[in-house]
Amino acid sequence: MAELLIRKKRIISNLNKLKEYSPNNIYVLKANAYGLGIENIVSILKEQNEDFFAVSNIEEAMRVRKIDSECRVLILGDVDKKDIDLVKTYNFEPTLFSQKQMEKYRGLRVHVSFNTGLNRLGFDEYVDYPNILSVYSHISDAFNKKRVMDQVNRFDEICKNYTNVKKHLFSTEAMLLYPNKYDYCRIGMGLYGFNEGFLKASVLKVKVLQKRSIKKGEYIFYGSKNIAKKDMDIAILELGYKDINIQNACMDMMYMPITEDIGDYVYIDIDSEKQLASLSPYIKRTLI
């Protein structure tokens, strides 16, 4: 079985670099902390005295609370009516983004999300609610300056209605490109090394099952698409598409061209946060 090695020192290095841009941050742990494991990342950040996290749902919030009984936990998605008592018991902070949520969230402290151009979740205009912890929105394309400025201006107009409320708009990419004038930034990809100038925080350690020499014109694995264009050597690895979204794979194995002798294991870099987030829960996560 493959193993995801999580480099603690690299995460701390990324954290310190990010805090040079913004000292006050909300650390995003959705999708099992982008695949690295909520428990692993919370334990690292807790050691660094960070105490404000964001998750997708109540299940992820409960995992955070089991590790840290006092930290703040923002829930970015919806909370079902049946789980409202958990919000109250464990002091979670849900997001209000729709009129449909008003009744079930009555009496709760909430963060209010606004749509400023992403056209996903959020209110389009001012909403009156008695107990607002923060208002926030999402930048849709940090590399398009005009669109960013349009969203900043739209968000600033909304914020005029919430003078004594915390505000946050930028994620990692926007924070690195533009000065942040709001109370928090929401940090995700940068912490895990998926922004330029940051250290990749994880690598897959994969067992080599067999090495094989393939002749030009021979087929590899199922179907007739993978055909050797030349004589080549390959390694058969214990990693398949059930484990991660990866090429040259069947369900529980993949092949990798090799040009030199290799040992019993290979180390595979993960190309993107999407690939990391797709990592199977069956893959062991190990802090190193």
UniProtKB/TrEMBL annotation:
Protein keywords: Isomerase, Pyridoxal phosphate
One GO biological process term: D-alanine biosynthetic process
Coiled-coil segments: none
Residues with N6-(pyridoxal phosphate)lysine modification: 30
One Gene Ontology MF term: pyridoxal phosphate binding
UniProt cofactor(s): pyridoxal 5'-phosphate
InterPro entries: Ala_racemase (IPR000821), Ala_racemase/Decarboxylase_C (IPR009006), Ala_racemase_C (IPR011079), Ala_racemase_N (IPR001608), PLP-binding_barrel (IPR029066)
GO cellular component assignments: cytosol
Domain of life: Bacteria
Domain Alanine racemase C-terminal: 201-288
PANTHER family per UniProt: ALANINE RACEMASE, ALANINE RACEMASE, CATABOLIC-RELATED
Protein name as it appears in the record: Alanine racemase C-terminal domain-containing protein
Species, as recorded: Sneathia vaginalis
